[in-house]
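Repro:
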Amino acid sequence: MSDPIDVKVAKAAPAGATAVAVGAHSDRLNRVPGVRKAALDRVGFTGAVGTAATFDDGERATVVVGLGPSGATGSAATDALRRAGAAFVRAVPKHRRAAFELPADLEPELAVATRALTEGLVLGAYRFDDLRSPDKVKPGLATVTLVVGDDNAAVRTARDGVATGAAVAGAVSFARDLVNTPGGTLTAPEFAERAAARAEEVGVTAEVLDLDAIREARLGGLVAVNQGSTIEPRLVKLTYEPEGAGADTPTVALVGKGITFDSGGLSLKPAASMMDMKDDMGGAAAVIAAMTALPALGVDVRVVSFTPMTDNMVNGQAQRPGDVYTARNGTTVEVLNTDAEGRLVLGEALILASEEEPAAIVDLATLTGACLVALGDRIAGLMSNDEDFRATVADAAARAGERVWPLPLPDDYRPRLDSQVADIKNISAQPWGGTLTAGLFLRDFVGEGIPWAHLDIAGPAYLQEPDGEQSKGATGFGVRTLLALLEGWGAEDGNDVDDEVETLGLS
């Protein structure tokens, strides 16, 4: 990753800023400071969210960024600011120092606005340069100063928002770095080492299980997937204890799929389908990254995460279609397609998470191509065994600016996973509804009575083109949703879930 930009707060734009952003609402283009509407019309600028127009007089560039129509509130307003921040930094790649003048008619409260804007600035400027030759890495934007006016209280409030936004964006960037790293480099042992090191830096406890410990823990699904690999698997458990935690502090468990490269195993993928399979650990990356941001955000709930890690490869010991393994809870599983391996490792992690007796479990996984077919590459599928908890996760995603859509777990589809030789098989014989039957498979490994939500992030975890603050390549999708969920745990904030979902354009 290139060095993240430094976001500061000041009462006025610094003299060294060679580019300044001003926000413009689509219905107020005649009120843009320093730029006439006629000039905006000439370049076709409409003020749509995420658009930008640059006017450069040779001394300082003025960049007008679109905020959409005025009057937006809630997640629509904060999402507009994130996208405006990303549009700005992408419009000024040759500048080193810039400023962003916050509009006078800002809708969200200042701390919320500056948090969202900081997220957009940092994530929009993200680059993965780790594998480029040094002479091929060009310097980018180093500093953006948010201009908030002469009020000292406003400066302090804005700085709080910036600090929180930087913590969130830093976690997302860490997840992106992990996913963007090739599978031959980020092996399971390397992944576990990086996760544990980052966790310990911030005060999160890390426990790493090697192959012997995984076998001793009877994690049959993880062992089965790893059989075809020459590289040992790992399972990483991270634990965050909030300050002042006691016996009555609830626990939330997170689970993430960590397939560091997926060839499909003996059910081999076509060559074209393998090219981006370094991203098949995007769920684990998001979970680990979110865990490392919890201390900075001061989250009040205890959080524990389980991320199983292995590649899915082919050798003489690889599991064969028709093989049966035994999971930690005693369930026997017939594997009919070795390319449906993510659910096997997730099942073991869900069992471990359930043994923590948590208030709820959330898992993230790049699980099914069927979800990408159904929802495209910008929206994650959301499934749950509890309607209230599904609504809570959907609300968190809306506030975080990450798009999800609820999908059902129909009980009458569950018999499609009945096996003739074992307790359950890993795929249905039906060629359709693969996302739903994958979710139903996972549900069988969740402890009774525990609210659980599953996010299939196969689409939005890795993009071919940037989208707002989401980068091309790894996006770190899910980190912000998890953090919004955990920050708001137990809070009665009165958000209307349907209204929040509608603001993301999904109704």
